[in-house]
Amino acid sequence: MSDATTTVPEADSDEILSGMAGEPPVSGEGRGFTIELTQDQKDIKDWVHGFAEGVVRPAAHEWDEREETPWPVIQEAAKIGLYSFEGLGQFWADETGLTLPIANEELFWGDAGIGMAIMGTSLAVAAIFGQGTPEQMGEWIPQCFGTPDDVKVAAFCASEPDAGSDVSAIRTTAKYDEAKDEWVINGQKAWATNGGIANVHVVIASVDRELGSRGHAAFVIPPGTPGCEQGAKVKKHGLRASHTADVHLDDCRVPGSCLLGGKEKLDERLARVREGKRSKSQAAMQTFEASRPVVGSQALGIARAAYEYALGYAKERRQFGRAIVENQSIAFTLADMKLEIDAARLLVWRAAWMGRTGKKFENAEGSMSKLKAGEVAVWATERAIQILGGNGYTREFPVERMHRDAKIYTIFEGTSEIQRLVISRAISGVHIQ
Predict the structure, then answer these.
(1) Which own/partner pairs from 313-316 qualify as long-range (CB within 8 Å, at least 24 positions apart)?
(2) Please, what is the average pLDDT of the chain?
């Protein structure tokens, strides 16, 4: 599978969907945590790496400069099954939880901007299969990807101009029109990956503002729905090959069936909350918690790419008659880079395994993994620039782009400060402000 043109093994869509939607194994059952990969995991790792090396990396500089969605690269990924419902489903179906982060690390090793253009759809997919009914999954998840001949993307819309880390401040509303069995959605979303260009948008909206984040629900906006329009496209510091934009929702009407999980389930949850009972889930936070180890693995890919490039450069670059890697300061920096990357990967794999096998996150292990990997990526890419010196500061060398790409991993899907807040609350049992 190391050949970039190899396709994923064919699988029945209903079987994949069943595996994606299935409950995690009961704690203690299934394969125990191990860092020894199975042959299937190794094959997928090599396969994605081959695509990243042969297709993604050669195109990285061009699409970063163009700041456009790399549709030809996404189509190439679709042709081999990497960008597909079946491909993502097989990654997710791994009972150890490790295959999805492994695949993401390899893809983002190739380039983070293109990697996000390919994997950005998965956040909307995660929301659909995490909160949707089997019928909703079967209807909407395939539409998130399209076909190899007509690829589509999907967008998950949670953040707003005044509601980033504070998801309870979401102002987008969804009102139910009982006579027409429709939801009317109004508001503005910000920082939406694939926002406006997506075939399917998944939008988090408030159905009861008085309940804060416990009054949120997730809705699918079908393709071509009137009232759902792209706003301003964001000109970003990094991840430039990934489209990011505002999404405006102006009396956007969707059928009642577009409420993920269905109205009966929503009404039961809201009733529990109004009675003072705990809500089992919150629409935005449920999606974020499931995705944090995967996001961490993306940061790992960037960090590893920068480390490997800096190591190769240090072996070749000569100053004062010898390779600069022979200087202790350079060698020790590279050793620290390798150390931190490997340590972060262990946190990511542990959290991914815990999430997939139903282990309880006693100490916010998901947040730990994303926090560590994101900060290591920023630090390691900065060290790579330093090792390359003046060359590292130019766009002629890729570590400059890697550093720009890495920074967002301390910001989106929960800033480093928010992750520390989550961790500190978990370990102390105190509601720290």
Answers:
(1) 313/387, 313/388, 313/391, 314/387
(2) 90
Q: Which of 86, 160, 365, 413 is catalytic?
A: 413
DSSP assigned state of 128: H
What is the fold of 14-151? Butyryl-Coa Dehydrogenase, subunit A; domain 1 (1.10.540)
**253-307 pLDDT tens trace:** 999 999 999 999 999 999 999 888 765 555 555 555 567 899 999 999 999 999 9
Give, in order, the Cα–Cα distances in Å from 286 to each of 20, 37, 57, 58, 291.
Answer: 16, 28, 33, 36, 9
What architecture (CATH level 2) is domain 283-428? Up-down Bundle (1.20)
What is the total residue count of the chain?
A: 433
Q: What is the DSSP string of 228-283?
A: EEEEEEP--SS-TTS-EEEEEEEEEEEEGGGBTT-HHHHHHHHHHHHTTPPPS--H
CB 352 within 8 A of CB 94: no
pTM for this one? 0.90
Residue 308 pLDDT > 90: yes
Q: What is the DSSP string of 332-398?
A: HHHHHHHHHHHHHHHHHHHHHHHHHHT---TT-HHHHHHHHHHHHHHHHHHHHHHHHGGGGGSTTST
Residue 174: helix, strand or coil by DSSP?
strand
* 178 C-beta neighbours (distance < 10 Å), count: 8
Torsion of CA 109, 85, 157, 369, to 10 degrees: -40
Active site residue 413: yes
Contacts of 276 (CB under 8 A, 6+ apart): none
Instruction: Provide the token pair at 427.
Output: 């370990």
Q: Describe the crossing of helices 121-131 and 13-21 by its angle, rounded to 10 degrees.
A: 70
Separation between Cα atoms, residue 139 and residue 141, nearest integer Å: 6
The number of angstroms, rounded, from the C-alpha of 355 to the middle of its chain's C-alpha atoms is 15
| Domain ranges within the chain, ordered by starting residue | 14-151, 154-274, 283-428
Q: What's the CATH architecture for 154-274?
A: Beta Barrel (2.40)
Q: How far apart are CA 103 and CA 107, in angstroms?
A: 6
Neighbours of 93 (CB within 10 A): 18
The angle formed by the CA atoms of residues 83, 54 and 2, to the nearest 5 degrees, is 75
DSSP state of 26: P
Q: What's the rounded Cα separation, in Å, for the pair 239 and 163? A: 22
User: Closest Cα partner for 5 from 57, 51, 44?
Assistant: 51
Taking residue 38's Cβ as centre, other Cβ atoms within 10 Å add up to 14
